[in-house]
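Title: Comparing notes on inverse folding

I've been comparing how different people in this forum approach sequence design from structure. To keep things fair, I'm posting one structure and asking everyone to reply with a full sequence. Here's the target:
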């Protein structure tokens, strides 16, 4: 049995499960490895099924809440009830998500003080009980990596339309590797979508992007806000604001880099002093649209004209919101601002930051 004395550390595994809107995995029991970051013992996998161990923890909590795990229960009784509850959970999930639904499963492991509370229950194959361990601290310890995983996939897969957290779970392990299930649970929802299957090339691209995103400070906040936008599928207004703020921060954070590249690319041998004077005068005079124009002309010159016009349309909507004007949420350019943000983050990381 896991000791409840504070200071005794045990092994744990922490798993986050997301549903990815817009993607499918059609082969039964498909598993598509995304990446492995050994520096934080983190793995990311795309799959169309969720492991039974994750469902067991949810099932146990349900049985406890229903008062169906009395002290007199035998191992056989508990196994039967647990199997029945797991089946119910999977049936409920099948009503929300198709059989080919794509889940992103991110896992990490380490050692932790379990902070268990009495009483705990032990059975032949597992134990469970309540714990006040700080799950949020575990999540925060890998939050940068989790954001980088989701962002790298969002930038690599054009049909990555949104992401929704389904659950996160901790399993503790005793010395004999017998699982102990602390009872902490969350669940989520879904919305309609049209989906495609990710390709091997897109997954390979995501791996490369992850390595850059996880260490890239100038895109960290933009990435977090983009992920927040993609996670806010049922609130168009909030999703729009998150995506716009992500794009705005990206432009402001990286503008100096592209302004310097612009001036360095000009032939200063002709009227060099004049150009330097213009540079000095303009230093504090760039509006947000001007900054985006300079960035787009270097990162995506072929699309710059169209992107600049789209940027101005999106900004106008944001300005109207800021001024308190009534706007039909259905008219908000949510997908456009999400895609524009993804596009420029991607090109910045691949080209501008190479």
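Reply #1:
Here's my take.
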């Amino acid at each position: 049995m896991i000791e409840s004395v504070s200071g005794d550390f045990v092994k744990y595994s922490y798993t986050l499960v997301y549903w990815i809107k817009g993607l499918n995995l059609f082969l039964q029991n498909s598993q598509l490895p995304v990446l492995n970051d050994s520096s934080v013992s983190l793995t990311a996998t795309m799959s169309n099924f969720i492991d039974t161990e994750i469902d067991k923890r949810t099932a146990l909590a349900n049985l406890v809440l229903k008062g169906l795990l009395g002290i007199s229960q035998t191992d056989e009784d508990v196994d039967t009830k647990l199997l029945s509850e797991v089946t119910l959970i999977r049936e409920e999930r099948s009503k929300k998500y198709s059989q080919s639904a794509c889940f992103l499963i991110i896992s990490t492991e380490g050692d932790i003080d379990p902070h268990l509370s009495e009483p705990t229950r032990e059975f032949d194959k597992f134990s469970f009980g309540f714990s006040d361990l700080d799950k949020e601290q575990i999540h925060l310890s890998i939050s940068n990596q989790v954001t980088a995983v989701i962002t790298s996939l969002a930038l690599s897969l054009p049909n990555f339309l949104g992401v929704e957290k389904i659950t996160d779970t901790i399993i503790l392990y005793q010395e004999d590797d017998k699982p102990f299930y602390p009872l902490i649970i969350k669940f989520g929802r879904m919305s309609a979508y049209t989906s495609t299957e990710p390709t091997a090339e897109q997954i390979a691209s995501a791996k490369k992007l992850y390595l850059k995103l996880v260490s890239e400070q100038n895109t960290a906040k933009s990435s977090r806000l983009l992920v927040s936008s993609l996670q806010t599928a049922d609130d168009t207004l909030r999703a729009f604001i998150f995506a716009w703020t992500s794009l705005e921060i990206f432009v402001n954070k990286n503008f100096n880099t592209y302004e310097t590249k612009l001036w360095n690319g000009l032939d200063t041998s002709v009227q060099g002093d004049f150009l330097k004077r213009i540079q000095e005068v303009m230093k504090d005079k760039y509006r947000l649209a001007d900054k985006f124009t300079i960035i787009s002309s270097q990162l995506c010159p072929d699309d710059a004209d169209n992107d600049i016009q789209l940027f101005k349309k999106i900004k106008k909507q944001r300005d109207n919101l800021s001024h308190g004007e009534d706007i039909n949420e259905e008219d908000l350019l949510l997908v456009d601002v999400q895609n524009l943000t993804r596009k420029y983050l991607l090109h910045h990381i691949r080209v501008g930051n190479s």
